Amino acid sequence: MGLRLTLKKAIELLDNKEISLKEIYQDLFEKYSQENNQYNIYLSVNKNSFSEAQTKKDKPLRGLPIAVKDNILTLGLPATASSNILRNYWPQYEATVTKRIKEAGGVVFGKTNLDAWAHGSSTETSDFGPTKNPRNPQYSPGGSSGGSAAAVAADMAIASLGTETAGSIRQPAAWCGVVGLKPTYGRVSRYGIIAMGSSLDCPGPITKTVEDSAILLQLIAGKDNFDATTSSHPVPDYQKNLKKGVKNFKIGICYIDHPQLSQTLAAKATLKAGKIFECLGAEVEIIKTSTQLQKNRILTHEYAISVYTIVQRAEVSSNLARYDGIRYGQSREFFGHEAKNRIILGTFILSKGYAEKYYLLAQKVRRLYVENFKQLFSKYDLLISPASPSFALPLGSSANNPMFGELQDMLVEPSSLAGICGLSIPMFLDEKTNLYLGLNIMGNYFQEEKILQAGWVFEQTTDWNSWKN
Questions:
Q1: Distance separating alpha carbons of residues 38 and 140, to the nearest angstrom
Q2: The one catalytic residue among 49, 144, 398, 415
Q3: Is 198 marked active-site?
Q4: Catalytic residue among 126, 140, 145, 168
Q5: pLDDT, tens digit, 9 for 90 and up, residues 365-403
Q6: Which of 9, 69, 182, 450 is catalytic?
Q7: Is there a catalytic annotation at residue 69?
Q8: Position 406 confidence tier, pLDDT thresholds 50, 70, 90
Q9: Burial of 466 by CB count in 10 Å (0-12 exposed, 13-18 middle, 19+ buried)?
Q10: Which domains does the chain have, with CATH numbers?
């Protein structure tokens, strides 16, 4: 029973003494021993988690177990980034996000699998083997936070933390039928995150319900003196206005008129979501896709694929240069195929004569996406789109496809490049495969309150979320 609980419900039942931490942890360790080999979700677990939980009963998270992506540094547990280079690396300090979770009474139960260095959207580039989707183990859970999304979907964690660079929270959340929140860049500290794309990386919660995401975001958001890119923008009470709904909101539907999306199940489900928001009092309209920057048009996602590929590879080549086998970790020969590809391409992009041709041009186009979203949010409260163009794909689909991740993340890459916030929630279930489609709800900078409001009322009005209270 305990593991089926949402974070909010678990706290309520613990407070009412209707369930105990001992029962929750017994269930969790039993489920871990029975199913982790099948799904390959956890790379390491905290054997002392229950004893730690006992000391945190009176704190906001009541000692409840939280799964953490293994590119987040945690004292007392390894941090491998799913790479053989860091196979035996034990961090010397704690990431700000997990420090705040622990201070609030959460316990890091274990570290979850990911695409090595977060390079991918399938969790198949992990040096420790792929994670399987608990909704259907013949399919990928998505990535790179596939282990964190799978932990929640499999009820092997009450909630989890992931990171997103260009879809790595929202896409696996969509494929696993859970809730994934990518905050505004700078809303949550990157300190202690193994860097991939430093101008893009963003930690955030992956949970069973929208309210659970609001609870965790409240705890991890805010200025951090250890991360100069964090914002001093005030952190609101995300739960206070959660249930206000979307009455009088103006919502724009994006990308579904594009030939790649038009008439797909993902597009049709997004249109139906728009109709639901209309019934809830919002004004909803389709925003036409444009190949040029135009007022009241959404700039096509296609350019974002190229921009992200260039910017991310360039930052990867810089960030992975520190893993030389001298200061810590194994030698560079232990880099996997995907990491080597990205390092080589990034180094080429930044080399003399090519940086101006590729990197600087990509950054200019990235700025166009920023300007596009700024203009659209002067007219709309929220933007919605599919989180991914399709359901989860079968295991093995990413093999020999160097652009697999960019193509699966193509509908969330523009918002990641711009740094705005986004929320993926279940919006359709295929009963034949038991796989989900996710609705991507995008908000302006530091407008997490609005996307949470919209996500909560959609979740409560529909039957797609199997955990909703």
A1: 13
A2: 144
A3: no
A4: 168
A5: 999 999 999 999 999 999 999 999 999 999 999 988 878
A6: 69
A7: yes
A8: confident
A9: middle
A10: 2-303+359-461 (3.90.1300.10)
